C-alpha cells in the first residue's frame, strides 16, 4: 500500500548543520559501530533507510566517493558521515540522523520504529566494541609485495619511521589513521592505540580546516592529485589537550588496495617560530632604538660597488625608499671639505683594517644641513681581500647645535671684561676666565685649582658670603649685589653675582661668580649702582647689553642693561620691532649690518649713540641664530660701550698721528700702531694696501675741494667695512692701508679686500655730483721680515693688482 509522505528534521551530532529528509517510506535502525557512536556523541546513530527514488536530503552537505565505490555525504563542519549509497543496493539510501526534533515522524510498514521516534535508551558505552582492524602502511598489499625480501624491507622501513625526528602519520582512503610513530605521539599527544583507526580530521585538524581536508580527500580519490602534495608548507595542528601548535607538513599520496591514502611527515615548528618571533621582536626593538637614537646602518659591497642603506640612514639623508645610493652619490651629500675626509677615512680603513669614524655636515636634497657621525669597519674574505665595509650613521645635529651654543657662551665668557670664576661645591676654584687671570696676574698655564674662592674675598665679603650670599644662593639659586674683592692683593668694588649649578638630583655641584670692576663708577654714581638688582641668570649676569631679535625684527628678549640703554621697560620692548624702540635716526648706520645678520651672516661694527645727552661709542656684535631646519631665525645682539677705550686710543695716537682731512691714522700713526703690536701676537695679522683708481681725473675735473670730499667719503666707507679692532690709515694722497688682526687665513683677508674693491666702485654723491672711481688692493700677511717688510710686500701685491688691470686685488 502507499503510505503518506514522511518528513524528518534533524541535525548532525556537532549541532552546527541542520538538514531535512523527505521520502514516501522510511525504515529506521540504530547503528552502534565506533564511527556512528563517535558521530552521535556515544549514543549511536539512527540510520534511516528509504527508497532512492523518493528520498531527498536538504542541507549544506558534501558528497564524495569512497574506496568501496559507495557515495558518502559528510558534515562540512565536523566531517561526520550523514548518508551513504551502496552500489550493492542501488535502490536504497541510508541517512544518519543524529537527533530528531519532536515534530518528526516515521511512517513505514517495514520499519521497526514506525510512527514513533527512534529509541535512544538502548545505548552502548563509547569504545565498548572493538574497532574494525585497519591495514597499516606495512600491511601486505599496501607498499610492498610478498617478495622474499619483503619482511626485511618492512623492518627497515619500520626502523626508519620510528627513528626519524619528525612525526609520521599515514591514512587510508577513508581518512582513517593507519600509522602513528612515537614522534607523532610526542608532538601531538595521542598514543598509538588512541590514534589508530580514528579519522585524522577529528584528531589533529582544526575545525575551520576540516572542510578543506575533506574536499582534498575527495579530490584525491577522483584525480589522484592535490594542491598540497609533494611540497612542504606550514599549518596549525591540534594537540590532544586542545592547544594549537605550528607544524611543517610534507604530504605524499599512497596507493592502497581500496584507493589512495596519504602519508605525512610532521615537524613541530613551534619552538622555531617562537625563536623567529623573538628575533623579529629584537630586530624591531633594535630598529626602534635606532630611530630614537637617530642611528642607522649601511653596507658597501666592494666587488659589486653597491651601497645598502637602512630606513634611518635614508631618513637622515632625506631620501625615500626609491632612492638608489651609489658611492659617488654618497660622497656628494657631504659638504665640500668633508668629502675629502670621508674618502680618506674610507680608503684608509680598507687599507689597514682599522675602524674609522668622522663627524661631518651633509646637505639633504631639500637643503637641510645635517651633522652626521659616520663609523665604518672593513670585512675580509678568507684570503684577506676586502669584500665589504659595514658601518653606522648617526644624526648628531642636535648635539652639534648644543656644542655651538656652548661654544658661543664660552666665547662670551672668554671675551667679556668681567671677572668670571667657578668653584666646586667645596669652594675650590676650578676656572677663571682670561679677564680674571689677567687681573690677578696669572698666565694661561697657571694652576688656579690651588686656590679657594675665599682667597680673593676681603674679610667683610667672606662674612657676607656666610651670612647673606650662600643662604640666598641655596634658597633661590642666585645672589646679586655689590661687594669688595681682592684683585692683585688690592680691594676693589665689584658688581657681584653668584649662581649655583645643580645636578639631576638637585644637589649643588659648582658655583659661578661674575664680577665687574665698578670702582670708578661707584665713586661717581654710588647711589645709582647700589639700586641695581638686575641679574637673575647667566645672561643677566653678563653686564654687556644683550638683545635677542626674531626673524621679523621683533625683540624676543632684552636684559636689564638693554633697558638702561634705550629707556623703556622690558615689558614695553619685548614684542616690538627695532624701529619702534630705537629712533630711526639712530639706526641709519646699522641697518645694513642688521640685514646681514638677518641673512645669517655674523657682523660687527661700531655705532655712535646719544644716550642720556652723552655721545657713546658702542661696539656691536650681531650673531645670527638658526632654526631647527638650519634657516636664519633672527640674531643675538651684544653691545659693549667702548667710549673710554676709543678715547684712550685717540689720546695715545695723538694729533700728530692723525690725517687732518679724513681723521684716519696717518703713516706715522700706522707705524706707531704696528710697533705696539707684540711680536708674539703678529700671527694672523694681514695688511691691505689700497690705491684709488681714476682719482687724479676727479681733482683735475672738479678741483681739490671735491677731491677732498671724495677722500673723506672713501675713508667713511672703508671704516664701515672693518671691525672695531681693525685699523684704517691714509698713508698718501690716494693711498690707504687697512690692518686686520686675528685673521684665520688668507681667504678671510681676501674677502675683506674684495669688499673694499666693491665699495670703492660704487658711485659717490658729492654735492650733487655723481663721481665714479675704483680701487686696487694688495694683500700680505705678517711674517719674519718685520712690519716694514710687511708693508713692502703689501705694496708689491698692490702693483701686481694694478698691472693686472686695476679694480681688483692681488
Specify Rg, calculated over alpha carbons: 50 Å
Number of strands: 36
Number of helices: 27
Largest sheet report: 6 strands, antiparallel
Helix/strand-derived category reads alpha+beta
- CATH T-level fold name of the largest domain: Alpha-Beta Plaits
Low-confidence stretches: 99-136, 138-147, 526-536
CATH H-tier superfamily of the largest domain = Reverse transcriptase/Diguanylate cyclase domain
Characterise this structure.
The chain has 27 helices and 36 strands. With 810 residues, the chain is α+β, with helices and mostly antiparallel strands. The protein has 6 domains: 6-100, Metal Binding Protein, Guanine Nucleotide Exchange Factor, Chain A, CATH 2.170.150; 160-268, Beta-Lactamase, CATH 3.30.450.20; 273-395, 2-Layer Sandwich (Beta-Lactamase); 401-540, PAS domain (Beta-Lactamase); 544-644, 2-Layer Sandwich (Beta-Lactamase); 654-803, Reverse transcriptase/Diguanylate cyclase domain (Alpha-Beta Plaits, 2-Layer Sandwich), CATH 3.30.70.270. The longest helix is centred in the middle third of the chain and has 24 residues, at 270-293.
Amino acid at each position: 500500500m502507499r503510505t503518506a509522505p514522511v518528513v524528518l528534521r534533524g541535525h548532525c551530532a556537532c549541532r552546527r548543520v541542520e538538514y531535512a529528509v523527505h521520502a514516501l517510506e522510511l525504515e529506521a535502525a540504530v547503528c552502534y559501530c565506533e564511527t556512528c557512536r563517535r558521530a552521535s556523541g556515544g549514543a549511536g546513530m539512527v540510520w534511516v533507510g528509504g527508497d532512492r527514488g523518493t528520498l531527498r536530503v536538504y542541507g549544506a552537505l558534501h558528497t564524495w566517493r569512497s574506496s568501496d565505490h559507495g557515495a558518502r555525504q559528510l558534515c562540512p563542519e565536523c566531517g561526520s558521515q550523514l548518508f551513504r549509497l551502496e552500489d550493492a543496493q542501488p535502490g536504497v539510501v541510508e541517512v544518519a540522523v543524529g537527533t530528531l526534533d519532536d515534530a518528526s515522524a516515521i511512517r513505514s510498514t517495514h520499519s521497526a520504529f514506525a510512527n514513533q521516534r527512534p529509541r535512544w535508551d538502548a545505548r552502548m558505552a563509547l569504545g565498548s566494541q572493538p574497532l574494525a582492524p585497519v591495514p597499516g602502511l606495512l600491511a601486505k598489499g599496501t607498499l610492498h609485495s610478498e617478495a622474499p625480501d619483503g619482511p626485511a624491507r618492512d623492518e627497515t622501513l619500520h626502523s626508519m619511521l620510528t627513528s626519524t625526528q619528525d612525526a609520521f602519520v599515514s591514512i587510508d582512503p577513508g581518512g582513517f589513521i593507519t600509522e602513528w610513530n612515537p614522534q607523532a605521539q610526542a608532538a601531538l599527544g595521542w598514543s598509538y592505540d588512541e590514534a589508530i583507526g580514528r579519522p585524522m580530521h577529528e584528531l589533529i585538524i582544526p575545525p575551520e580546516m576540516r572542510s578543506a581536508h575533506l574536499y582534498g580527500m575527495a579530490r584525491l580519490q577522483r584525480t589522484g592529485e592535490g594542491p598540497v602534495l609533494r611540497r612542504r608548507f606550514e599549518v596549525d595542528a591540534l594537540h590532544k589537550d586542545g592547544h594549537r601548535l605550528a607544524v611543517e607538513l610534507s604530504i605524499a599520496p599512497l596507493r592502497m588496495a581500496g584507493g589512495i591514502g596519504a602519508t605525512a611527515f610532521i615537524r613541530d615548528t613551534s619552538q622555531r617560530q617562537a625563536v623567529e618571533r623573538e628575533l623579529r621582536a629584537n630586530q624591531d626593538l633594535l630598529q626602534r632604538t635606532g630611530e630614537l637614537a637617530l642611528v642607522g646602518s649601511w653596507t658597501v659591497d666592494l666587488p659589486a660597488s653597491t651601497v645598502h642603506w637602512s630606513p634611518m640612514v635614508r631618513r637622515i639623508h632625506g631620501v625615500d625608499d626609491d632612492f638608489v645610493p651609489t658611492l659617488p652619490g654618497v660622497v656628494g651629500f657631504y659638504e665640500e671639505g668633508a668629502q675629502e675626509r670621508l674618502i680618506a677615512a674610507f680608503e684608509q680603513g680598507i687599507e689597514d683594517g682599522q675602524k674609522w669614524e668622522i663627524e661631518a655636515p651633509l646637505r639633504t636634497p631639500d637643503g637641510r644641513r645635517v651633522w652626521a657621525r659616520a663609523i665604518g669597519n672593513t670585512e675580509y674574505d678568507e684570503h684577506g681581500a676586502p669584500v665589504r665595509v659595514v658601518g653606522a650613521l648617526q644624526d648628531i645635529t642636535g648635539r652639534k647645535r648644543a656644542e655651538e651654543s656652548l661654544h658661543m657662551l664660552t666665547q662670551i665668557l672668554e671675551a667679556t671684561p668681567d671677572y668670571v670664576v667657578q668653584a666646586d661645591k667645596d669652594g675650590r676654584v676650578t676656572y677663571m676666565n682670561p679677564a680674571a687671570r689677567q687681573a690677578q696676574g696669572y698666565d694661561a698655564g697657571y694652576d688656579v685649582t690651588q686656590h679657594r674662592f675665599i682667597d680673593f674675598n676681603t674679610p667683610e665679603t667672606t662674612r657676607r658670603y656666610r651670612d647673606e650670599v650662600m643662604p640666598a644662593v641655596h634658597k633661590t639659586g642666585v645672589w646679586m649685589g655689590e661687594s669688595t674683592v681682592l684683585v692683585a692683593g688690592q680691594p676693589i668694588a665689584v658688581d657681584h653675582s653668584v649662581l649655583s649649578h645643580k645636578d639631576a638630583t638637585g644637589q649643588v655641584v659648582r658655583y659661578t661668580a661674575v664680577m665687574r670692576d665698578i670702582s670708578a663708577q661707584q665713586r661717581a654714581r654710588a647711589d645709582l649702582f647700589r639700586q641695581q638688582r638686575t641679574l637673575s641668570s647667566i645672561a643677566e649676569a653678563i653686564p654687556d647689553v644683550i638683545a635677542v631679535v626674531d626673524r621679523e625684527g621683533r625683540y624676543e628678549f632684552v636684559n636689564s642693561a638693554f633697558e638702561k640703554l634705550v629707556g623703556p621697560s622690558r615689558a614695553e620692548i619685548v614684542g616690538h620691532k627695532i624701529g619702534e624702540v630705537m629712533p630711526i635716526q639712530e639706526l641709519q648706520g646699522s641697518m645694513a649690518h642688521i640685514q646681514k645678520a638677518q641673512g645669517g651672516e655674523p657682523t660687527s661694527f661700531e655705532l655712535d649713540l646719544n644716550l642720556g645727552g652723552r655721545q657713546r661709542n658702542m661696539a656691536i656684535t650681531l650673531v645670527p641664530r638658526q632654526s631647527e631646519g638650519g634657516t636664519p631665525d633672527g640674531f643675538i645682539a651684544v653691545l659693549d660701550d667702548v667710549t673710554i677705550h676709543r678715547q684712550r686710543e685717540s689720546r695715545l695716537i695723538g694729533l700728530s698721528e692723525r690725517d687732518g682731512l679724513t681723521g684716519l691714522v696717518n703713516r706715522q700713526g700706522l707705524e706707531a700702531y704696528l710697533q705696539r703690536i707684540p711680536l708674539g701676537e703678529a700671527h694672523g695679522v694681514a695688511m691691505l694696501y689700497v690705491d684709488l683708481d681714476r682719482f687724479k681725473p676727479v681733482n683735475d675735473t672738479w678741483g681739490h675741494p671735491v677731491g677732498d670730499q671724495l677722500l673723506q667719503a672713501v675713508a667713511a666707507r672703508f671704516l664701515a667695512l672693518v671691525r672695531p679692532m681693525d685699523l684704517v690709515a691714509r698713508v698718501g694722497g690716494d693711498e690707504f692701508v687697512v690692518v686686520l688682526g686675528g685673521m684665520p687665513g688668507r681667504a678671510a683677508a681676501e674677502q675683506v679686500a674684495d669688499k673694499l674693491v666693491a665699495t670703492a666702485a660704487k658711485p659717490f654723491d658729492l654735492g650733487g655730483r655723481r663721481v665714479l672711481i675704483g680701487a686696487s688692493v694688495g694683500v700680505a700677511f705678517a711674517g719674519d721680515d718685520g712690519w716694514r717688510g710687511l708693508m713692502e710686500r703689501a705694496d708689491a701685491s698692490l702693483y701686481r693688482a694694478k698691472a693686472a688691470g686695476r679694480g681688483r686685488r692681488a
